[in-house]
Amino acid sequence: MPPSLQVSQLVKHFAGADIAAVDRLDFTVAAGEFYALLGPNGAGKTTTLRMIAGLLAPDAGSITICGIDLVGSAMEAKRVVAYVPDEPMLYDKLTPIEYLELIAALWDVAPSRARAEATRLLDVLGLAPHAMQRCETFSRGMRQKLVLAGALIRDPKLLILDEPLTGLDAEAARLAKNLLNVHVGNGGSVILTTHVLDVAERMAERIGVIKSGRLIAEGTFAELRARGRGGVAATLEDVFLELVAAPAAA
Prior knowledge:
By secondary structure, the chain is an alpha/beta fold. The chain has a domain at 5-83 and 159-245: Rossmann fold (3-Layer(aba) Sandwich). 36% of the residues lie in helices and 22% in strands. The protein has helices spanning 45-52, 74-78, 96-106, 111-124, 140-152, 170-185, 197-203, 221-227, 236-245; strands spanning 5-12, 22-29, 34-38, 60-65, 68-69, 81-84, 158-162, 189-193, 206-211, 214-219. A six-stranded mixed β-sheet has the order 6-7-8-3-9-10, with helices on both faces. Strands 2-1-4-5 form a four-stranded antiparallel β-sheet. The protein is globular and about 55 Å long. The model has no long low-confidence stretch (mean pLDDT 92).
């Protein structure tokens, strides 16, 4: 089985910037793996995810999703991917049920299955009491949960999440994390960026750390911790801060 995601020598420059936002980046996400991509602000995380989602064109390098070349077969690759940005975007005049059924229809999910999945996801995420309200009335946390439901309703092989827990309270974050664990347990893959390092420590099977657009460390939490000075008592936050404080390799 091919990996869910393979990123090879990925490069992205933006006009007016002296250095590349993403600079010869390489990493792989296996099928059925939960992968966290971490880095300080400006490290290139969101740019990388937007390229993987097909929203930005890379300047060089390749992205392969489930064995499909994203550049050469963009539509085929996008059919197995769902992307949740850090700013949730909805159709404000729709209700949650209407929104989820619309997303499902766009991806050819059968109407009967779409309605059943929409009902299930709204229930799991605590949105069922608001199923007939217009989205324009929703808080940021409610919007974030609904966007996540929209990504999951078609059961993507690769789920791309940019700060998915921003704006969620503790209970909502737990519900979202449970859904993600179920998705991975059913064979889906997740690549996530987050500043909540405890989430990555608890949920990710492997972690990649980028700085200035380059991968500077990768492995399980135990493997990353073994590289640091803090020993077995170190948290991911300890390890992360030590890694990003170190001078970048030439």
